[in-house]
Write a structure and sequence with these properties.
Helix content is about 65%, strand content about 0%. The chain is mainly α. Helix 2 crosses helix 5 and helix 5 runs parallel beside helix 8. The longest helix has 29 residues. The N terminus and C terminus are likely disordered.
Length: about 220
């Protein structure tokens, strides 16, 4: 989760140490912990105030780090935000394996809902706004965040094909194109509940049928 609190509520001159003894035993260095804290602070501010109003001073205050520490690692705001986005999406999450395509879809959508909800929703809104004015950030999101969604679809379809639930020519991009849009609209636009009824509806009435016929040539694609 993103750090709590508003910009400027923490002393700017206090450096961040490795947060827990467990982290230290796991080999977490003070410099790595400090960088994670700064990246999280940058993402929190991006979601709260947007890219244009976000300042390095505010990041330093939120992360409890000196500006000198930040500028030694990142030459400017653009580089910091890019690195922060990369850090957030660096680890590709393996979709849950429930033993069926329907179960995998529902379980994966549930994980997505947990990630989109709460403070991450504001973060995504801030990133989307910043993408319009920062081409490098837009490229970063497209090549990393979107590729992660494409990877999830590939895994779900490969498993289903191996089980005999989908034809071998099923198109995994159906997941990439449809699932995130449905989830974002539900959570960020309509503010509707992401409960079992909704997840079951998306799986049974939308994604499973679309994936099942995705390899078939549609009438619009037929050659005249």
């Amino acid at each position: 989760m993103l750090p709590a609190g508003a910009p400027g509520t923490h002393p700017a001159a206090v450096e961040v140490d490795c947060p827990t003894a467990d982290d230290a035993r796991a080999g977490c260095s003070r410099s790595a912990a400090r960088e994670f804290a700064i990246c999280d602070a940058a993402l929190a501010l991006l979601g709260e105030v947007g890219y244009d109003r976000m300042s390095m001073d505010a990041v330093a205050a939120r992360a409890r780090a000196s500006k000198a520490t930040i500028y030694r690692r990142w030459p400017g705001k653009r580089e910091l935000v890019l690195d922060a986005v990369r850090t957030r999406v660096a680890d590709i999450v393996e979709p849950p394996d429930t033993g069926s395509l329907r179960g995998d879809i529902i379980a994966t959508l549930r994980v997505m809902a947990e990630g989109i909800g709460g403070q991450d929703a504001a973060l995504m809104a801030g990133v989307l706004r910043a993408m319009r004015s920062t081409p490098e950030l837009a490229d970063c999101v497209r090549t990393q965040v979107l590729e992660q969604k494409r990877y999830i679809g590939q895994v779900l379809v490969e498993r289903a094909v191996a089980r005999g639930e989908l034809p071998t020519d099923a198109d995994p991009d159906v997941w990439h194109e449809v699932a995130p849009a449905l989830m974002f609209f539900r959570i960020l636009v309509t503010d509707g509940p992401v409960d079992d009824a909704f997840l079951t509806h998306v799986a049974d009435d939308v994604l499973v049928p679309l994936l099942a016929r995705s390899g078939q040539e549609s009438p619009r694609q037929e050659k005249k």
